[in-house]
User: Fold Enamine deaminase RidA (YjgF/YER057c/UK114 family) from Thermocatellispora tengchongensis.
Amino acid sequence: MGNRIFSGGVWEERYGYARAVVAGPWVIVSGCTSTIDGEVRHVGDVRKQALTAFGIALDAVERAGLTRDDVVRTRYYVVDPSHYDEVGAAHAQLFRHVRPVCTGVQVAGLIDPRMLVEIEVEAYRRDEQVPAPRGLPEEPQGEGVR
Assistant:
């Protein structure tokens, strides 16, 4: 079933889940918000909430022995669609050089109305024997699709 990583967050114990699970080469991190020691941080500031949530998720990735460079997928959930750009800017600040796949989703609400964003992260332990794909451009050529 893999190794479990716990952050000590109040929701983990209350709802019976782990912050992250290491399953083979994968590290799959539960949804993270800007809640620390049971308190929502940066109320009203979605960018700071996103950076805090990403920090909690990346801490779990690092505790599993991987780094930000091993992140291959991120997801973020926002209640207000006008927050996509701010969360996207926080994502770019952290992952511009990594370029994981990313999905942004609008949801009806999160568990606490002060929470503006929830983040999920998945990382993959790469086998150093496998060569990187060839023939793909380093940077996107043209406009991306959101």
